[in-house]
UniProtKB/TrEMBL annotation:
Belongs to the NAD(P)-dependent epimerase/dehydratase family. dTDP-glucose dehydratase subfamily. The keyword Lyase applies. Residues 3-322 form the NAD(P)-binding domain. Pfam families: GDP_Man_Dehyd (PF16363). The keyword Repressor does not apply. GO terms for molecular function: dTDP-glucose 4,6-dehydratase activity. It comes from Caballeronia grimmiae. It catalyses: dTDP-alpha-D-glucose = dTDP-4-dehydro-6-deoxy-alpha-D-glucose + H2O. Keywords: Capsid protein, Lyase, NAD, Virion. This is dTDP-glucose 4,6-dehydratase. The gene is rfbB. Gene3D superfamilies: NAD(P)-binding Rossmann-like Domain (3.40.50.720), UDP-galactose 4-epimerase, domain 1 (3.90.25.10).
Length: 353
């Protein structure tokens, strides 16, 4: 079986669902179920023996040791993290704990387990660490895209802790020979994303008749990657990636935030028109995010050249699917927008002009 951490979160849950759609190899899903973890996303696997769920914190060494010993995974795919930049600005401590201490603890448990494996299983073992393009910092409008050799220059507490975890993973390969792989991907979007991130937040607010809060001038650029394409890239890297290497994963879709919001409004105008006016009328410019990175862009040619992966979705097809999914699954979105979510909305948006 494979051990997936953070498999109740957005990308992790999409990965678990995709994995079990294409394979009968079981998944041990290890997740602490923070505000971002939601077992409702995995309810289609309720009676499926191939999905084993363990509620545990990756910072808990004894729990990690026990899970490795009991389930004997052939690979780890490590998604678990605190993932939202704005939350890292309001409360960085949880980010240091989970992203740095948690990854360290998981690496230690994996190393102990891996060291004791018989030689053939030791050779076959993999530890795949899922990271982000944010570790590379911010680009100007004319800079070349991030490549695998771009130096690390993280700017937020979130990206600094992810960079710390990337360095630990790299060091465990160079020092101990642990068979690791790292992926650095751009902004994911698609089904089951928590409505704190740009795209699901805008859809939820638009449908609720609330303002669409665009930070600063709305000209910051992100590269958008459909989550299903990201899951396919991870499967390729896990199967064929070269040990100790890093792979950039991107959608070749650089867009300004305002363009993204406009496209979302236009899609909603077509699919669920308002009684009068356009969803664009709800756009509200608000105070910028402190330290807001201007542009991220990914050069994903290594992954295409070496492993044959490229994204299947364009931004237009991926976004249309995503909007339709949120329209068809409003019950899921209402369920995750719990009391804790309402508190976060007040913390992040209540004080912004
Ligand atoms: P998410 O916030 O939606 O989910 C994170 C999951 O990890 C949740 O299920 C949560 O309960 C779990 N978790 C948190 N702390 C834990 C702990 N201490 N122990 C065990 N489980 C814990 O995140 P996501 O958007 O799905 O991101 C997954 C991974 O991909 C993260 O490592 C993130 O840094 C990386 N990433 C995300 C994006 C993106 O656009 N969302 C882009 C690049 C990289
Ligand atoms: O680049 C990969 C990263 O993408 C991941 O590592 C992170 O886990 C993920 O959260 C994401 O980070 P961003 O900060 O880019 O994503 P977010 O959805 O929070 O914001 C996208 C852009 O939209 C960013 O420029 C800030 C802006 N924004 C965001 C929110 C929540 C707004 O203008 N208004 C908002 O309300």
């Amino acid at each position: 079986m494979i051990l997936v951490t953070g498999g109740a979160g957005f990308i992790g849950a999409n990965f678990v669902l995709d994995w079990l759609e294409g394979s009968d190899e079981p998944v041990l899903n290890v997740d602490k179920l923070t505000y971002a973890g939601n077992l409702g996303t995995l309810k289609s696997l309720k009676d499926d023996a191939r999905h084993v769920f363990a509620r545990a914190d990756i910072c808990d060494r004894a729990a990690m040791d026990e899970l490795f010993a009991k389930h004997k995974p052939r690979a780890v795919v490590h998604f678990a993290a605190e993932s939202h930049v704005d939350r890292s600005i309001h409360g960085p401590a949880d980010f240091v704990q989970t992203n740095v201490v948690g990854t360290f603890t998981l690496l230690e448990a994996a190393r102990t387990y891996w060291n004791a494996l018989p030689e053939a299983e030791k050779q076959a073992f993999r530890f795949l660490h899922v990271s982000t393009d944010e570790v590379f910092g911010s680009l100007s409008a004319t800079d070349p895209q991030f490549s695998e050799t771009t130096p690390c220059a993280p700017n937020s507490p979130y990206s600094a802790t992810k960079a710390g975890s990337d360095h630990l993973v790299r060091a465990y390969h160079h020092t101990y020979g642990l068979p690791v792989l790292t992926t650095n991907c751009s902004n994911n979007y698609g089904p089951y994303q928590f409505p704190e991130k740009l795209i699901p937040l805008m859809i939820a607010n638009a449908l609720a008749g609330k303002p669409l809060p665009v930070y600063g001038d709305g000209q910051n650029v992100r590269d958008w990657l459909y989550v299903g394409d990201h899951c396919a890239a991870i499967r390729e890297v896990l199967a064929k990636g070269k040990l100790g290497e890093t792979y950039n994963v991107g959608g070749w879709n650089e867009k300004k935030n305002l363009e993204v919001v406009h496209t979302l409004c236009d899609l909603l105008d077509q699919k669920k028109p308002k009684a009068s006016g356009s969803y664009r009328d709800q756009i509200a410019y608000v105070t910028d995010r402190p330290g807001h990175d201007r542009r991220y862009a990914i050069d994903a040619r290594k992954l295409e050249r070496e492993l044959g992966w490229k994204p299947a979705e364009t931004f237009e097809t991926g976004l249309a699917k995503t909007v339709q999914w949120y329209l068809d699954n409003q019950a899921w979105a209402d369920e995750v927008a719990s009391g804790e979510y309402r508190k976060w909305v007040e913390t992040n948006y209540g004080q912004r002009a």
